[in-house]
Amino acid sequence: MATIKTQLVVFDFDWSMADQDTDRWIFEVLAPDIRRKMKTLKESIQWTDLIAQSLQEIHARGRTREEIEHTLRQMPFHPAMVRGVTNLKGASNPSTTFFCLSNANSVFINTILESKGLQNLFEEIVTNPAEFDPSGLLKLRRRVDPDGPQHSCTVGCSPNMCKGEELAAFLERHKPGYDRIIYVGDGSNDFCPILRLRSQDMVLCRRFRGLEGRISREGGQQCQVKYWAGAWEVEEIFNQFIEKN
Ligand SMILES: [Mg+2]
Ligand SMILES: [Zn+2]
């Protein structure tokens, strides 16, 4: 294989970088009855819209911005993941750029990254936009505005965002690109972007979740596939990238 001088690490967030799902965690901790209701409604309401609506409900109950932020900081996040990405970013050969591609939202992701000292890790974070209004309501919108032009994904991405199209757009913004792309993901919506990876690229697929099933049932990806279950194994793989050079 040709020498790798530049690489891009693309991270899904929930259950990939973090060891939990932000959308569900918030309600499991602050309002389990709403969490239960989400299970019932998720077939009939688009997921991002359902989270936006559920955030309005907990705000109406008097749950504060501080409670939401505190709950996010408490969410499981493996120390080996912090070490692994920090060491890889600090290494100069190869030089590594990090890109976050997530169906969570900007407030959830940034709050957690800051609490881990990782606020400068990512070159870009592409996700659903969110912000607290002055009353403490967390206002969340889809990345792709439902009233504007929609994405044209045929692989099954949710209407709020096509991760494959977003990865292609990132690469278009960052020419001439990277010698290698490593995609870390777990969910069925991480299948679309990995179909765009090349033979020198790699997916680090978390076991026992939606992505593993789609790779085994549908296949068709050109990239190499490595499996992991615990964040310590991602750290181990990242360390091997550094040691080889
Ligand atoms: Mg995920
Ligand atoms: Zn897609």
Automatic annotation (TrEMBL):
Its cofactor is Mg(2+). Pfam families: Put_Phosphatase. Keywords: Hydrolase, Magnesium, Metal-binding. One of its GO terms (molecular function) is metal ion binding. The active site is at 12 (nucleophile), 14 (proton donor). InterPro entries: HAD-like_sf (IPR036412), HAD_hydro_PyrdxlP_Pase-like (IPR006384), HAD_sf (IPR023214), Pase_PHOSPHO-typ (IPR016965). Mg(2+) binds at residues 12, 14, 186. NCBIfam families: DKMTPPase-SF, HAD-SF-IB. This is Phosphatase phospho-type. It comes from Suillus luteus UH-Slu-Lm8-n1. The lineage of its organism: Eukaryota, Fungi, Dikarya, Basidiomycota, Agaricomycotina.
